[in-house]
Design brief:
This protein is mainly alpha-helical. Helix content is about 65%, strand content about 5%. It has 11 helices and 3 strands. This is Transcriptional regulator.
């Protein structure tokens, strides 16, 4: 049997199949075979196996004896995986995914803000306030859709979760960064942030800086309520 010419890389197969699954082209229960994937991608068995293993780790595929490779239902996916978030933002359920991840932020970030007010180091308190000030300045200039704003926004939320002192909250920093990044690069982040969001950012950071846990939680919740309204109204 002739050896296939390897023209598709492992990463290309992962992304192509991943997008087809997340986008709904390959429905749950769809069966695949290594031989079929080899032929489809003109790739070696080794490369295809590696790609399948990655997608199995993402929860998108499962391999069963005497059945083959099967697409798994959405509820079994690793929904917080950065790849899956990115692919979902290009799929037909983009709005639902953004709303779901925003709801997760609403559940977690206000509590993280309260804990940060109680546990953050002095340097973290100062840095968080600095990032909030940068966001306020950029947003006030109508640069809420700029790369600089995105960088500051990701840094602010990552630091907020880290300063909470809860390592499980910190695990959410990359999914949150991915949704912020995804909204920005797809033109879904307004240049002029919604009225009240910048003020709530600053109020949250100031309350954390001052050690006022209840105020930090309330301001973070106010900020995310505004974000939720913006997302659901999009």
């Amino acid at each position: 049997m002739p050896t296939p010419v390897t023209t598709a890389s492992h990463a290309h197969i992962v992304e192509t199949l991943g997008r087809r699954i997340v986008g709904g082209e390959l429905a749950p229960g769809t069966g695949l075979t290594l031989a079929g994937l080899e032929e489809s991608f003109a790739a070696s068995r080794t490369v295809v196996r590696e790609a399948v293993r990655v997608l199995e780790a993402h929860g998108l595929l499962t391999s069963r004896r005497r059945v083959g490779i099967v697409v798994r239902p959405r509820e079994e996916w690793d929904a917080l995986n950065a790849d899956i978030i990115e692919w979902s933002l290009d799929g037909p359920n983009r709005r639902d995914v953004i709303i779901e991840l925003t709801e997760l932020r609403v559940a977690v970030e206000p509590v993280a803000a309260r804990l940060a007010a109680e546990r953050a180091t002095a340097s973290d308190r100062e840095e968080l306030l600095q990032w909030a000030t940068v966001l306020s300045d950029l947003g006030g200039q109508g640069l809420g859709d700029s790369d600089e704003y995105l960088e500051a926004d990701i840094a602010y939320h990552r630091l907020l979760l880290r300063a909470s002192g809860n390592p499980l909250f910190l695990k959410l920093s990359e999914p949150i960064a991915e949704i912020l990044r995804g909204r920005s690069v797809r033109g879904l982040t307004p240049g002029m942030p919604r009225v009240g969001t910048l003020e709530a950012h600053l109020a949250t950071a100031q309350a954390i800086h001052d050690g006022r846990g209840a105020d930090a939680e309330a301001s973070a919740r106010e900020h995310l309520t505004l974000v939720s309204d913006e997302v659901e109204g999009a």
